[in-house]
């Protein structure tokens, strides 16, 4: 992908009123992303509405090129950095099921992980040491079988899993690809890059965390997973909501059983009662992944 094509994709990604579906229609007519910005204003307005036409014209005139130039500089600075437009064969196709699929993703690291089955190993914020150890054990076993772990940097359990199996981890960020959030995740991000893992970000370089970006990260994270494995969580935790969302999107949902006396077992137990698959080992997850088309 040459610089002009990258610039065009980055401009499209700055179009806040442009959905991926609308981008597909514009690209179908223009054939190349660069040509979208040369499209006839009236034609775009008739098909997509005046607001989209105004934004395409504004972006074509360079209205967002300061952030676009920063992104191009970041891509040029790192040999292992690359841009993933939604038309790329490497783009996680499951992401197209999102309400608003990212038009592009920034990536840095091992692109080969994008060809593997992915499992999100999750657990809530204040789980105990035993739950973290269980998550680490399961994560390492899955990576040993060539499954990629898709993780956030949101909870100690997820950070511990990424730290234990960095070579097989895809970290989805709530910031630009050059930022760390939370600051305590610096070690894990460095380990993932150094060990052959992958970072993915929707936000542009130099963009920090916001509540909206956390929400978007979680949407991308769950949509990109083939399966979700809940290790430990209270019933009211955000991780329970993520697991339910994954199920509603057609993802496989697994839950690890635990002590009836532990509040962190109540979330997994509820999922199991509601149809999630009980998981006591990585083999329980692997058997399901083999059956995916």
TrEMBL record:
Q: By its UniProt entry, which SUPFAM superfamilies does this protein fall under?
A: MCP/YpsA-like (SSF102405)
* Smf/DprA SLOG domain ranges (all copies): 85-289
Q: Kindly give the Gene3D superfamilies that the UniProt entry links to this protein.
A: 3.40.50.450
A Pfam entry, by short name: DNA_processg_A
Q: Name one GO biological process term.
A: DNA-mediated transformation
Family in the record: Belongs to the DprA/Smf family.
Looking up PANTHER family in the UniProt record yields: PROTEIN SMF
UniProt name for this protein: Smf/DprA SLOG domain-containing protein
Lineage, opening ranks = Bacteria, Pseudomonadati, Pseudomonadota, Betaproteobacteria, Burkholderiales
